[in-house]
Design a protein that fits this description.
The complex is a heterodimer of chains A (240) and B (282).
Chain A (H helix, E strand, L loop, with lengths): L1 E8 L4 E8 L4 E6 L5 H9 L6 E6 L2 E5 L4 E2 L7 E4 L11 H11 L4 H14 L15 H13 L5 E5 L7 H18 L3 E4 L3 H7 L2 E6 L2 E6 L1 H5 L5 H6 L6
Helix pairs in contact in A: 2-3, 2-4, 4-5
Chain B lengths: L1 H49 L3 H8 L2 H34 L5 H13 L2 H12 L6 H6 L8 H26 L2 H9 L4 H29 L3 H6 L10 H8 L4 H27 L5
The chains are: A alpha/beta (240), B mainly alpha (282).
């Protein structure tokens, strides 16, 4: 289980995030641009350091200002999918997926078998020797997911995982992504701008405004809070 | 309606004719200027090749002055390029990624040798590392002499050529999207691993072309070297210094050395162009 209760002073406001995500549960973060959604993900994965608070994952303290603990990102075992996917363009698909395993000093045969079985699962073996820069949006998304999941992370963070895709491929990849997250059985946080994502993935949906979580609940419950202008436009059913 | 359309068509055609003749006239004026400038650039280089026969060129290559200068130049330029890479890379990366107080001053100091006349660099190095220099006097107490040695040649080259690498390396590091480094860290790579496995490969083209330009600048160093290291054959007489010296005796030796430098310079430019063209699709 992930528990977060941290604060960080940003340029325009102080971000204060308090949330809990259980194993197998997906928390969907929604909100305007610049509300601090991606910053929350960066704080959890360790790319940014909170000013104060605590953060634990499965009982292990990741950050605590009182205990002066700050586990570096490379030791957190958190899968973080970036909006741009951040596939290393100088490496092939295989090498991208193998990158994290090699960081863990795993023997090359074990790396090969785990990478290939992951690529097989995602039906991407044919692309294994392709340079990452030559892939389409959907393929990149799947390789980025494979690269994160092959490490068997304790938590998955997804920053607008479907934003870079066209409407047509979004629906099918959304389904695939949901299955992959469910199969991993770990807590996950998804940042999204799409109503469908919140409905399909979310066990709980949190609305962030100016660095604070102002509303939270089940997607269906949140849908009813039409007095909030963002919620009202978010659930207007006009997006696919 | 048709009439309007045909009038519009006529006007467009006429306009294109005017444009075309205008362009032609401009081209007629500019072409001689461009050709004259290219002629000015090419004729000195061609003259070098026309002034010497292949036999005389190869004969000169056997001259010990030429051989010593060639070996010394290639050796010192290689060593100074390695020093610049080793010492300049951390600074370039720091300036590309971090903001700190005094960064502008550090940047200006790094760029200073580019605008500083080499003779000024030479006398400055002499004042620092010469026998009575600010640091040199202490080194002298330990029996270490820097000025007028091969090491002085290397120091002069490092001083004068380092900005070429540091500027290029900084720009290349800045061009690497930070998200790649962030992604690598979340995948389990420590800072050093991220630097060598992600940042350096992505900045590779710029780093290599910076190193090549530094090597070329080091190879051509003259002013600072002659003032700080002197002009001793086999020890401090690099190719440019040997050209200067042999010109007063056997012109063929000077021309042969000059031709070698022209060939190296040409190869450097081609290599840099080739390397910088090969970039990754992100």
């Amino acid at each position: 289980m992930l528990t977060v209760d941290v604060a960080k002073r940003l340029r325009d406001f102080t971000l204060e995030a308090a949330l809990e995500v259980k194993k197998g549960e997906v928390l969907v973060l929604i909100g305007e641009n610049g509300a601090g959604k991606s910053t929350v993900l960066n704080l959890i994965s360790g790319l940014l350091t909170p000013d104060r608070g605590t953060m634990t994952l499965d009982g292990q303290v990741l950050f605590s200002d009182r205990e002066r603990i700050n586990v570096p990102p490379e030791k957190r075992n958190i899968g973080h999918l970036f909006q741009s996917y951040a596939l290393f363009p100088h490496l092939t698909v295989y090498e991208n997926v193998a990158f994290g395993l090699r960081c863990r000093k795993m023997p090359e045969e074990a790396v090969a078998s785990r990478v290939m079985s992951r690529l097989e699962e995602m039906d991407m073996v044919a692309l294994s020797r392709e340079p990452a820069g030559s892939l389409s949006g959907g393929q990149r998304q799947r390789v980025a997911l494979a690269r994160a999941l092959v490490l068997e992370p304790d938590l998955l963070l997804l920053d607008e995982p479907l934003a870079a895709l066209d409407v047509k491929s979004r629906a099918s990849i959304r389904k695939e992504l949901k299955e992959s997250i469910a199969a991993a059985g770990i807590p996950a946080i998804i940042v999204t701008h799409h109503f469908q994502d919140a409905m399909v993935f979310g066990n709980q949906v949190c609305l962030m405004e100016n660095g604070r979580i102002t509303l939270r609940g089940l997607p269906d419950d949140l849908m009813k809070k039409r007095e909030n202008s963002f919620i009202s436009s978010f659930f207007c059913h006009c997006e696919s | 309606m048709d009439l309007t359309r045909s009038r519009q068509h006529l006007r467009a055609t006429w306009q294109s004719v005017v444009d075309w003749t205008g362009e032609r006239r401009l081209l007629l004026v500019l072409t001689p200027l461009i050709l004259l400038f290219l002629f000015f650039l090419v004729i000195p280089i061609v003259s070098l090749f026309l002034r010497i026969t292949p036999e005389a060129f190869f004969e000169s290559l056997a001259n010990p002055v030429v051989i010593d200068a060639l070996v010394l130049s290639l050796g010192t330029a290689t060593v100074s390029t390695c020093i610049v890479i080793l010492m300049g890379t951390p600074l370039s990366y720091l300036n590309a990624r971090a903001t700190y107080r005094g960064k502008e001053i550090v940047d200006t100091l790094v760029d200073l040798p580019i605008v500083m006349p080499p003779a000024v660099a030479g006398i400055a190095l002499l004042m620092a590392f010469g026998r009575r220099g600010v640091i040199g006097r202490y080194l002298d107490m330990w029996g270490v002499q820097v000025a007028f040695t091969t090491f002085a040649v290397i120091l002069a080259q490092v001083f004068v050529a380092s900005p070429f690498f540091i500027r290029q390396a900084r720009a290349s590091f800045e061009a690497v999207d930070r998200t790649y480094e962030d992604a690598a860290r979340t995948l389990g790579a420590g800072r050093l691993r991220v630097f060598f496995r992600v940042t350096v490969p992505l900045a590779w083209a710029g780093l290599v072309s910076g190193a090549i330009l530094t090597f070329a600048r080091a190879l051509g160093e003259f002013g600072a070297t002659i003032m700080f290291a002197g002009n001793f054959q086999g020890r401090t007489q690099t190719m440019p210094l040997a050209i200067y010296t042999t010109m007063q005796g056997d012109l063929n030796d000077a021309i042969s050395l000059a031709i070698i430098l022209v060939i190296i310079s040409f190869a450097v430019i081609l290599l840099v162009k080739y390397i910088t063209r090969r970039t990754f699709r992100c």
